[in-house]
Design goal:
Blueprint: H1 2-20, H2 25-40, H3 42-46, E1 53-60, E2 66-73, E3 76-77, H4 79-88, H5 102-115, E4 121-125, H6 130-139, E5 154-158, H7 164-174, E6 178-182, E7 187-191, E8 196-197
Parallel strand pairs: 1-4, 6-8
Antiparallel strand pairs: 1-2, 2-3, 4-5, 5-7, 6-7
Length: about 200
């Protein structure tokens, strides 16, 4: 009987400690969401030292608009900067914007850092509305009908200070998402889908 009493006391103490630590539903949800982005890029980030900030410099080649900002700092993404990035990566044909997958931004930042780039990332295509994607697919067999561009999970880029082959090689070395190579059009495609290349 005494052993049962001690066991119950330990359980109560454990529950009390969980409550003190803020083990509420909201705490677990916030922690889980923060961890998801990190888990999405395990191999790449395992080789990268922790950085206090994440920054991107983007130039939309269709609109001439650019952004150079820290989008992650002190352990959190910065909503105002994310909106600026969404605007730069909007569908330039329709003007429509879409939330951009945070993993995509982290892949871009990691690639930029891995290459030691200094110039802006030149964006050929970011978000693509269903209407634009349908129109492009009618004229180009390489445009996927269910493109991840329509979900804000893909981007077509180049870095002017590196050859396209160097950029592709560095992107493949990250071993995250999809990497497409389009030398005739002078860009590579990156997305947050499963690891594959073409």
């Amino acid at each position: 009987m005494g052993g049962l009493k001690v066991l119950l006391q330990r359980v109560n103490n454990h529950n009390h400690q969980l409550t003190k630590l803020g083990a509420s539903r909201r705490f677990f949800i916030k922690t889980g969401l923060s961890a998801c982005t990190l888990l999405a890029l395990p191999a790449a980030y395992a080789r990268k030292p922790k950085t206090p900030v994440k920054q991107l410099a983007l130039l939309n080649l269709h609109t001439g608009e650019r952004v150079k900002s820290v989008y992650w700092e002190k352990g959190r993404y910065i909503p105002g900067v994310l909106r600026d990035i969404e605007k730069i990566l909007r569908d330039h044909r329709t003007g429509k914007t879409h939330a951009i997958d945070l993993r995509l931004l982290d892949i871009l930042q990691l690639l930029y850092s891995r290459m030691g780039a200094r110039k802006e990332i030149q964006v050929i295509s970011g978000y693509r509305s269903p209407e634009t994607n349908k129109m492009l697919a009618l004229h180009n067999n390489s445009v996927a009908k269910q493109s991840l561009h329509m979900q804000g999970k893909a981007i077509d880029i180049r870095l002017p200070e590196f050859s396209l082959a160097e950029l592709r090689k560095a992107a493949l070395s990250l071993k995250v998402g999809g990497v497409g190579y389009y030398p005739d059009s002078n860009f590579i495609h990156l997305d947050t889908g499963h690891v594959r290349y073409w």
